[in-house]
Design brief:
Layout (H helix, E strand, L loop, with lengths): L3 E7 L2 E8 L2 E5 L21 E5 L5 E6 L8 E5 H8 L13 E5 L14 E4 L1 H8 L28 E4 L2 E4 H4 L1 H15 L4 H15 L14 H16 E7 L5 E7 L5 H5 L4 H7 L7
Parallel strand pairs: 4-6, 8-9
Antiparallel strand pairs: 1-2, 2-3, 4-5, 5-7, 9-10, 11-12
Helix pairs in contact: 2-4, 4-5, 4-6, 5-6
Length: 284
């Protein structure tokens, strides 16, 4: 990997960064490089931005800090962002949202350092995995339905790119769980889709961290929002109907409707959808 310079444009203003010895440095107008979280020299003008890099310093994307954040400027790795700040950029109504304001265009150039930071998918790839009917126990951490760890899924990457948009891998991993759970709940709720969505959300909250006997998640987390995305997609994808056996007894089935409806999976949760289905709002 070669060292080099990067120009990151934030709100129509270009800022210079320099990669040296696997670290990314900000180069202010004064010319002295800066890599730190905190700046002791108030005379140095810095952009209000969090620049997220690979461990080798390659910049991946940038987030806009909240006005109340202690850190208004920082250069940090994606792993630090995930572990320490716990920010996300894909669900505005969920906790810890920070707006994505720059994405390295090299993320779409195969074999580049930025490209290889992600595992790349289309929504069709996610849908194909999600539509396989599994026992729900399969979705516990590390088992055969755990998309984020499966070779055909996230393969333990921290970040994935879906239709050229970045996500935390574990966020996308909520969708197969949600879809399979919805399939079961549509039948249990006899075609009452609203009830099935609420029940699926409650199940996701109970499963929480995905570990057997693990912690529940009753928060406004991006995980719960992504589960809701999967529920809303399943409402469109699955058709409920009742059929009769030869002895006239009735049984229920769920059938797949043609079309991938990827625009639903790609859409952020709205306030109306939150009001209708966010069961975590009512848990103490």
């Amino acid at each position: 990997m070669d060292d080099g310079s990067y120009c990151i444009t934030i709100k129509n203003v270009a800022y210079k960064f320099e990669l040296s010895d696997s670290r990314l440095y900000y180069i202010p107008k004064q010319g002295k490089n800066i890599s730190t979280y905190g700046l002791n020299n108030d005379r140095i003008e810095t952009p209000q931005v969090l620049v997220i890099t690979r461990k080798n310093g390659i910049p991946l994307f940038a987030l806009e800090p909240d006005k109340n954040d202690e850190k208004q400027f920082a250069i940090l790795t994606a792993q630090q962002l995930y572990d320490d700040l716990k920010y996300q950029w894909f669900e505005p109504l969920a906790d810890n949202y920070r707006k994505l304001i720059w994405l390295n265009e090299e993320s779409f150039i195969e074999n580049s350092e930025a490209y290889s930071a992600y595992k790349h998918f289309t929504w069709d790839d996610i849908i194909k995995f999600a539509l396989k009917d599994r026992m729900m126990i399969a979705y516990y951490s590390g088992l055969w339905g755990d998309w984020k760890k499966r070779k055909k899924g996230g393969a333990e990457y921290l970040l994935v790119m879906v239709n050229k948009k970045p996500y935390w891998t574990d966020a996308i991993g909520q969708i197969p769980f949600s879809v399979d759970c919805m399939r079961d709940n549509i039948i249990k709720c006899q075609g009452n889709y609203d009830m099935a969505i609420k029940q699926t959300i409650l199940t996701g909250m109970k499963w929480g961290d995905g570990e057997i006997n693990g912690e529940e998640d009753n928060t406004n987390s991006y995980d719960n929002h992504m589960i809701l995305r999967g529920c809303l997609w399943s409402r469109k994808k699955f058709s409920y109907r009742e059929k009769k056996n030869h002895d006239d007894s009735v049984f229920s089935i769920v059938e797949e409707i043609s079309g991938n409806f990827e625009e639903i999976l790609e859409s952020k949760i709205t306030e109306e959808e939150m009001d209708a289905y966010a069961q975590w709002k009512y848990q103490k």
